[in-house]
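Sample entry follows:

_____
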Amino acid sequence: MNKNKFVTTTFTRYGPIIGTLIIVISFHILIYLDHPARFLQSLITPSVVIPMCILMLITIVVGYIIGYIPAYITGELFLHIFKNKLANANLYQVIAYGCFTSFLWIPLLLIFSQFSHEWLLIFLYLQFVFILPITVICAVIEWRQLK
């Protein structure tokens, strides 16, 4: 009896969720940058907290759907390039492998960011605040699962 298991990588399992959380936290930081006390005051107001939790759940679902394809591509690239090296790698090497995998997105990000007036800020945000941490975190989790 052959069971068909849907095999996923850590990148597709956790990557879109981590990415969604990074985007939500980043935009909250930008919104409340001028008045951080306003954010803390809204956390104790039930009329704000309940819709915020519902919207967070919706955001995670939508973010997972949107982020699945890039996470799948990144996971396949990571495993294709570094799978044989993961068994003997230490933590610092795995972090470097994650960084190298995230740098594979640089050409596409440069093209994508050119459509904006402040293209450098968008590129730096997408590469170093968004893609790099997700890739490194998922690479470390993948390495720990293989050990």
In short: Residues 9 and 76 are 8 Å apart (CA to CA). The helical segments are 10-31, 36-43, 46-86, 91-103, 106-113, 119-146. The mean pLDDT is 89. The radius of gyration is 18 Å.
